[in-house]
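### Sample
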Amino acid sequence: MDKMHWILFLHILMGQCCFFTCRLYEYHFIAENKSWYEAQRYCREKYTDLAKVFDMTDMSRLRNSTQNQGEAWIGLNNNTGGNRMWHWSLPGVEYIQNDSSWNLSGRAYWEYPGNCVRKRDKLADVSCNTMTWFICYDEMKKDNKTLYLITTPMNWTQAQTYCRYNHTDLASGLDQVDGEEMKALFAGRVMSVWIGLFRDSWRWSDGSDFSFRYWDMQLFNDEQSNKTCAMTLLNRSGKWSSDECDKEKPFFCYDDKVILVKENKTWEEALYYCRDKYLDLVSITNLEDQQWVQEKAKNASTPFVWLGLRYTCTLGFWFWVTDEVVEYKNWDSDGTTDGCDMSAAMESGEKHKWFNKLDNNLFNFFCYKN
Ligand SMILES: *[C@@H]1O[C@H](CO)[C@@H](O)[C@H](O)[C@H]1NC(C)=O
Ligand SMILES: *[C@@H]1O[C@H](CO)[C@@H](O)[C@H](O)[C@H]1NC(C)=O
Ligand SMILES: *[C@@H]1O[C@H](CO)[C@@H](O)[C@H](O)[C@H]1NC(C)=O
Ligand SMILES: *[C@@H]1O[C@H](CO)[C@@H](O)[C@H](O)[C@H]1NC(C)=O
Ligand SMILES: *[C@@H]1O[C@H](CO)[C@@H](O)[C@H](O)[C@H]1NC(C)=O
Ligand SMILES: *[C@@H]1O[C@H](CO)[C@@H](O)[C@H](O)[C@H]1NC(C)=O
Ligand SMILES: *[C@@H]1O[C@H](CO)[C@@H](O)[C@H](O)[C@H]1NC(C)=O
Ligand SMILES: *[C@@H]1O[C@H](CO)[C@@H](O)[C@H](O)[C@H]1NC(C)=O
Ligand SMILES: *[C@@H]1O[C@H](CO)[C@@H](O)[C@H](O)[C@H]1NC(C)=O
Ligand SMILES: *[C@@H]1O[C@H](CO)[C@@H](O)[C@H](O)[C@H]1NC(C)=O
Ligand SMILES: *[C@@H]1O[C@H](CO)[C@@H](O)[C@H](O)[C@H]1NC(C)=O
Ligand SMILES: *[C@@H]1O[C@H](CO)[C@@H](O)[C@H](O)[C@H]1NC(C)=O
């Protein structure tokens, strides 16, 4: 029995070594002048789609992928008929409507309607130009503290810039916004503060709902305009502005390195399938990877999706089949009891947490591809 496990373990580690080569997606700069829609067609043919951007790290990778200093299309456009959607400012936090957090009768008489959200007791949507205090979130958790009240009045965009520079971001997600630490910050006071919630009608070309925006507020004006396609200005730190979609510019594509295989297989079958047809089962080693992969999990036909994370009974630890270090974790709080013949699977819905599951379950799975 033990010998069998040991052999399987060695066998699994003899797969592809992905350590530096397996990345979840790559950017490609295309130095040809095309309209936004032509560019979109080109990217979908040759790669995956026009580039989408998850956070500042992505922005840095995008800029680093070219020497060009001009303007270039990215995969964001406003051709949505004005259908606005809410987004949290902190990358990776998904917006889920919960009426009990809002005051649906809304604003006070002195507040103007708008696309940014302030919290008093409850939330209300007000003009982003409003100057008010705000709450930053800090992931460093110094002295267990994650939320900081800043008592310098700023508009929403300035407040976001402040928080991203000095902390992590504006407070984002109902756990932060309605949680105990926030209640303690308010301490019974009546005050109005910005939180990291905004809405817009911009959408990514591939339909994903990444909330990251990097508008150059000196050039960009999200109002009545026929400039409905987004570009990055490489000579202005890559900040974004908008232009008419039929203007011809160079552009960025992205190439997806992860594929969701919608076949039902045991964990071992999935492993050999990936190694045979693609590269390997996928590893998730940071929040950004988690977000990238969880977008795809929504499309699975099974309630869970296999990852390349496996428990070795013989040695008593979890390991990625691609040999990466198990540092980042996203276990469900009930999902971590170790056990023989167990591997990790991501929930297709809900919060996309990881659960340990017996290997003989039949699930869809993620492979790395070339
Ligand atoms: C794209 O257009 C710009 C401005 O019209 C021009 O300077 C550049 O040479 C063109 N690039 C290519 C590859 O045609
Ligand atoms: C982009 O290049 C700069 C300068 O070479 C470097 O400091 C930075 O780490 C690079 N960013 C990424 C995400 O690789
Ligand atoms: C950036 O490039 C654009 C043309 O693509 C030019 O109009 C603008 O002046 C440049 N800005 C800076 C700060 O160099
Ligand atoms: C909405 O928020 C309330 C209070 O924070 C919570 O009790 C409730 O479970 C939430 N509802 C949903 C659907 O998340
Ligand atoms: C909702 O907002 C209105 C207008 O500001 C206010 O009169 C009312 O007390 C608020 N209700 C709650 C439950 O906070
Ligand atoms: C916020 O203030 C800055 C600086 O005063 C300004 O450039 C920007 O347009 C304002 N943004 C909004 C959304 O009000
Ligand atoms: C930090 O907060 C957690 C949960 O709120 C608590 O269990 C822990 O004791 C706190 N640690 C310190 C050093 O205050
Ligand atoms: C960071 O905080 C300092 C001190 O509060 C402030 O002066 C500065 O403007 C902040 N940085 C940004 C980018 O807002
Ligand atoms: C985006 O589209 C909506 C609805 O058509 C419009 O209200 C908004 O002003 C547009 N923004 C830009 C920058 O074109
Ligand atoms: C967009 O608006 C500008 C100024 O109003 C106008 O000159 C231009 O022709 C318009 N472009 C399109 C494609 O409608
Ligand atoms: C989900 O599947 C549909 C149909 O196969 C496809 O059009 C869509 O792009 C997929 N979404 C994601 C996020 O992969
Ligand atoms: C995989 O299993 C799910 C139920 O878990 C089922 O709905 C789906 O049709 C199955 N797919 C295939 C390709 O057998």
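The chain has a mean pLDDT of 89. This sample (C-type lectin domain-containing protein) is used throughout the tutorial notebook.
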